[in-house]
Amino acid sequence: MRTWDVIVIGGGIIGLSLALALRKRGAKVLVVERGEPGREASYAAGGMLVEASAETPAVLQPLVTASAGMHPEFARELQVESGIDPDMRDFGAIVFPAADPSHAPGSALPAPLSELEPALAANNRPAFFLSERSVDPRALTHAAYGACRHLGVDFSSGDEVTEVLSSNGHASGARTVKTSFHAEKIVNCAGAWAGQIPPSRFPTRPVKGQMLCLAAPSRSFLKHVIRTPDVYIIPRSDGRILVGASVEEAGFDKRTDPEVMKNFHRHALDLIPTLHDAKILEDWAGLRPGTPDALPILGATDTPGYFVATGHFRDGILLAPVTAQIMADVISGRDCGFDLAPFLASRFWLGGGGPPVR
Ligand SMILES: Cc1cc2nc3c(=O)[nH]c(=O)nc-3n(C[C@H](O)[C@H](O)[C@H](O)COP(=O)(O)OP(=O)(O)OC[C@H]3O[C@@H](n4cnc5c(N)ncnc54)[C@H](O)[C@@H]3O)c2cc1C
Predict the structure, then answer these.
(1) Which CATH number characterizes residue 11's domain?
(2) pTM of the entire structure?
(3) Residue 183: predicted pLDDT
(4) Cβ atoms of 316 and 288 closer than 8 Å
(5) C-alpha distance from residue 83 to each of 49, 58, 68, 190 (Å)
(6) What residue owns the CA closest to ligand 1's atom 12?
(7) What is residue 358's predicted lDDT score, i.e. its pLDDT?
(8) What is the residue with the minimal CA distance to atom 2 of ligand 1?
(9) What's the mean per-residue pLDDT of the chain?
(10) Is residue 187 in some structural domain?
(11) Is 86 helix (H, G, I), strand (E, B) or coil?
(12) Are 153 and 282 in a shared domain?
């Protein structure tokens, strides 16, 4: 019987980054992905690496700051190992805040708006600058997959894990509809679906996000990420322009809504009228892994050998490098250097009489 040191359930950016980190430390790793790796939330994301946001919970900030700092090297390494360019851009974001924000969401613009982004419609609204990067999450995830393959991570694609197996109270493997795989360490990185795998203890839920993609008239048409209270606009180096994103409680429904797309289009044209003739290339929806307190679930579970890394909600692309490092440390029994107490799965059942069993 073939065995591995670690089985990672789910081949999104979180599972792939972790598989790679573990492999680089010498572990034999198997990723079990029910579909194709990197085709769910990690395929749908915008790829903003937002380091400073009023929406970031304070306990998450140390991970956000660390991960934002790790991204350039992470992206470079993935590119070297896979030959795929994750399109890391470092031009910053221009933010138009809601009227009367309680505090400025960034610093003063480094130059007049008309110089920074000539395509933006003239307006008198206050605007701020944030120094932050972006990546193309599809390319990043594809690069992570390529790097995994290059470094010898094994994959099983096409069958979902139906159960995490245990033997004498210790995790021992993962069962799919067709077969079982064996390892002493199992990590649930199944994103919005993480709570569906028995024995399920993780209150993850899907939070739908829709996105529209336009073709800019030229590759250098827009430089910065633009954020307003209504939409954000993310340029890619190949000339694609993403407009998004909705935040919806819609279960596992991934259909797009023409009304939402019309709304995105209208907001984009209000901001950048010269996009009027831009071709609509694509629209899509993805399911962010949400949790009741909007914090990720990271670390060991109450079953020895069973770990979890999910619930990254709106920041999973940003948090992938630090999550991989933290989880690789935890799984190999090392101190990860972060206080993981706010992120442990046990926070959802502490005082509640033990983990819910479904
Ligand atoms: C519209 C939108 C915009 C976003 N924008 C940003 C952004 O700008 N910046 C940012 O940092 N984040 C952003 N996010 C969030 C980010 O996409 C997610 O946090 C991140 O992709 C989560 O990665 P993941 O690997 O946990 O999940 P996923 O990418 O969903 O991967 C989970 C994987 O597990 C697999 N799986 C599920 N169940 C099973 C099973 N039983 N057996 C085997 N495999 C299974 C799935 O098929 C999937 O491939 C955005 C998300 C959306 C939807």
Answers:
(1) 3.50.50.60
(2) 0.97
(3) 98
(4) yes
(5) 22, 36, 22, 26
(6) 315
(7) 41
(8) 45
(9) 95
(10) yes
(11) coil
(12) no
pLDDT of residue 122: 85
DSSP assignments along 152-168, one per residue: T-EEEESS-EEEEEEET
pLDDT at 1 exceeding the cut of 80? no
221 plus 318 within the same structural domain = no
Mutate to test the pocket of ligand 1, among 200, 317, 326, 343 (most ligand atoms within 8 A of CB): 317
pLDDT given at position 52:
85
Same domain? 270 vs 307: no
- pLDDT at position 355: 52
**What one-letter code names the amino acid at 18?**
L
Domain of residue 189, residue span: 3-83+137-204+292-348
As for ligand 1, residues whose beta carbon falls within 6 Å of it are 9-15, 32-35, 39-42, 44-48, 160-161, 189-193, 197, 209, 211, 244-245, 286, 288-289, 310, 312-318
User: Does residue 276 surpass a pLDDT of 80?
Assistant: yes
Q: Quote the ligand 1 centre to 224 CA distance (angstroms).
A: 24
* Contact call for residues 313 and 291 (beta carbons, < 8 A): yes
Q: How far is the CA of 319 from the centre of ligand 1 (A)?
A: 12
What is the mean pLDDT of the segment spanning 46-73? 95
